Amino acid sequence: MERSQEIPPTAVVWDLGGVLAPSGRALAALAEALGLPESELAYPYWTHRDAYDLGASPDAYWRRIAESLGRTLDGGWVERLDRIDTDCWATLESDAAALLARLADRGTPLGILSNAPGSLARAVRRASWSARFETLVFSSDVGLMKPDPLVYRAADERLGRSPSEVVFFDDRPENVAAARAHGWRAHVWTGGEAAAAVLAREGVLDG
Q: Domain 11-21+92-201 falls in which CATH fold?
């Protein structure tokens, strides 16, 4: 009797900010460092973020923010702000960490697909928790951002899987919609408990 061809196990892919890491922590810490209300920092922080996530340098990003705020920053401030930013985004939320541990113990293949700048991508790769992930794909690596359909194709190539073999969590509905259109089994992240229930329905975790 011929042996059936082995089917690759489903990979579970995660967004970073707002899923694995809480979205409000970085802005709060940066506003405190600059002595500003979060509301004043939020607009320039997010307005210039896409270019940074696509590969712009930390110096260019933070100086654009400073100009928007009517300030100047020397190299020491740029380094300090970027360190605060990356440390916040590279620290796992507790419920996400617990769910990742369950999946890793089962040998579930894990991946990340995140819109993130190069400095954050390097910080994640240095973090001890990232050793659980077999594939890390960041927008700054590939020059593409979610929800661009091409970024999901680029992730497939690195994951070595077809779209139907991927379960994906993201906090932004537009990214989830684009992932579903690509063929991923994508879901909006609403917390670890809800995600565990989704993974049970997807056959990745026991119910």
A: Rossmann fold (3.40.50)
